[in-house]
Amino acid sequence: EAPESFPPLRKEAAVRVLRGRMKGIQGHCNSCYMDAALFSLFSCTSVLDSMLFMPFPLCDRNVQGILRDEIVNPLRRTGFVRAGSVMHLREQLTDKGQCSSFTNAEKDPEEFLNLIMQQILGIEPLLKLQSGDQEQDCYCYQIFMDKQEDLVVPDVQQLVERSFLSSDLKLVEIPSCFIIQMPRFGKEYKMFSKIIPSLELDITDLLLDSPRECCLCGEVATLEC
């Protein structure tokens, strides 16, 4: 018998289920990078639910079952995932990956996403980026940028646009899912004390060869600054 599945939390239901003490994913033994990634990917959106159900040719059923039944469904049903469930997933990732420290060390979220999406679940890359003549595929985009004095409390839209501009990047096509990793924060230094979430992201100016309007006359632009 297939276990019961729960849809992502929306609006009032999200507030009711996820707000308060003992909510979210319980942290343990440097799991914060994975806890935050899993919460962001599955608590309130279904865009990656194919990871939980589709019979991918290279899919590892055991890891898929743990992710679906021990983490995502409890999170959507009760708003809480115990640390032991995440550790169960980390143990499986340690067995499947090339790294032996998934159970005790802090990792980069991109390393976790690449392992679980590419090597374990066999998902095609979500993003196609182009810089100059070089095109690359990836699963998420990490914001890299220098400190800018005019950005005190930026929103995600501003950070993505400036990061793409400074790195001379364009999206080759509209992504089905756009996973964005915020600027790195260390223990001694934080680039921004706060970042305002952008509830919608306008990627018009980030798309390669996309028609854009002139900022002066409103007609289709022929030049880009």
Q: What is this entry, summarized?
A:
This protein has 225 residues and is an alpha/beta fold.
Task: Provide an overview of this structure.
With 225 residues, the protein is of the alpha/beta class. The protein folds into 2 domains: 11-120, Alpha-Beta Complex (Cathepsin B, Chain A), CATH 3.90.70; 127-221, no CATH class. It has helices spanning 11-18, 32-42, 50-53, 61-78, 83-96, 109-120, 156-167; strands at 24-25, 80-81, 127-131, 134-138, 141-142, 170-171, 180-181. A 3-stranded antiparallel β-sheet has the order 4-3-6, with no helix packed on it. Strands 1-2 form a two-stranded parallel ribbon. A hairpin with a 2-residue loop joins strand 3 (127-131) and strand 4. It starts with 10 loop residues before the first helix and ends in a 44-residue tail after the last strand.
What is the fold's blueprint, element by element?
Elements: H1 11-18, E1 24-25, H2 32-42, H3 50-53, H4 61-78, E2 80-81, H5 83-96, H6 109-120, E3 127-131, E4 134-138, E5 141-142, H7 156-167, E6 170-171, E7 180-181
Parallel strand pairs: 1-2, 5-7
Antiparallel strand pairs: 3-4, 3-6
Helix pairs in contact: 4-5
Rg, nearest Å: 19 Å
The number of helical elements comes to 7
Can you give the helix content as a percent range? 25-40%
What is the rounded distance between the termini?
59 Å
- Element-level helix/strand string: HEHHHEHHEEEHEE
Q: If classified by CATH, what would the architecture of the largest domain be?
A: Alpha-Beta Complex
Shape descriptor: globular
> How many domains, in number, for the residues?
2
Oligomer: single chain
What is the SS-derived class? Answer: alpha/beta
CATH superfamily of the largest domain: Cysteine proteinases
Major beta-sheet overview:
3 strands, antiparallel
Low-pLDDT ranges? none
Keywords: Cytoplasm, Hydrolase
Protein name: CYLD hydrolase
GO molecular function, one term: cysteine-type deubiquitinase activity
InterPro entries: Papain-like_cys_pep_sf, USP_CS
